Structure formats: structure tokens, C-alpha cells
């Protein structure tokens, strides 16, 4: 089976950065379920929670006319921050389905 590795990057912050993130900050989802944050950095758990439900779908190839195949922006739920994140595919990984749960 093939899945995409993903990077979620802060695109913009239209308000006050309550959680301390700034444009360009990111985390990656690799090898199906490994969350990676660069050394010395952090990522707000509420921002992660807002994007988390979309990640399994974005890891898979979808039909070209699927809205999620065309859309990659997600808003953080904190109205004071007005933060927008972008989900990008950064590579493919081959995995054995029997190795996963």
C-alpha cells in the first residue's frame, strides 16, 4: 500500500498568535502515523486537533474531483488567532498493510 507523507504548515495568522506559532512553523506526518515536530519547536495541540480529522484522507490518493483533493487549507478553531494551515503532500511511502493496525 502507498500513502503520502504530509506536512502541515502555518500559512498565516490574521490575529494575535496566542499559542506562539508563526507562519512557516510546521509538523509532519510520516510512515502512516508518526508525528514529527522540528527540534526545539512546538505545535499547538488545538491546531493539531483541528487538522487531524483530515489527515488520513489526505494521505491517500483521491479522485481528482473530490473536494479534499483540491482543498488544502484548514483554520485553527481559536478565533483570536485567525490562523490558517496548509496540508501538503511531501512524499510517498510504501507500507505493508499487515504491519499496521
What does this structure look like?
With 101 residues, the chain is of the alpha+beta class. It has one domain (2-99). Helices cover 15% and strands 35% of the residues. It has three helices and five strands; from the N terminus they run E-E-E-H-H-H-E-E. Strands 3-2-1-5-4 form a five-stranded antiparallel β-sheet. Strand 2 (26-30) and strand 3 (34-36) form a beta hairpin. The longest helix is centred in the middle third of the chain and has 7 residues, at 45-51. The protein starts with a strand and ends in a 7-residue tail after the last strand. The mean pLDDT is 92.
Strand portion: 25-35%
Would you tell me the structural class of the helices and strands? Answer: alpha+beta
- The number of strands is 5
Poorly predicted spans: none
Whole-number radius of gyration?
14 Å
In round numbers, the mean pLDDT is 92
Helix content: 10-25%
**Element order, helices and strands?**
EEEHHHEE
What's the number of domains?
Answer: 1
Straight-line N-to-C gap: 13 Å
Number of helices: 3
Biggest sheet, spatial arrangement of strands: 3-2-1-5-4
Largest sheet: 5 strands, antiparallel
What is the overall silhouette? Answer: globular
Structure in a nutshell:
By secondary structure, this protein is of the alpha+beta class.
Strand and helix layout:
Elements (H helix, E strand, L loop, with lengths): L1 E12 L12 E5 L3 E3 L8 H7 L3 H4 L8 H4 L2 E3 L7 E12 L7
Amino acid at each position: 500500500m502507498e500513502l503520502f507523507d504530509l506536512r502541515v504548515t502555518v500559512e498565516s495568522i490574521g490575529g494575535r498568535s496566542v499559542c506562539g506559532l508563526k507562519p512557516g512553523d510546521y509538523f509532519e506526518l510520516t510512515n502512516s502515523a508518526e508525528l514529527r515536530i522540528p527540534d526545539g519547536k512546538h505545535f499547538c495541540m488545538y491546531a493539531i486537533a483541528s487538522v487531524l480529522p483530515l489527515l488520513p484522507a489526505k494521505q491517500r490518493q483521491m479522485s481528482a474531483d473530490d473536494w479534499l483533493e483540491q482543498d488544502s487549507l484548514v483554520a485553527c478553531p481559536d478565533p483570536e488567532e485567525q490562523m490558517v494551515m496548509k496540508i501538503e503532500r511531501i512524499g510517498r511511502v510504501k507500507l505493508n498493510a499487515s504491519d499496521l493496525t
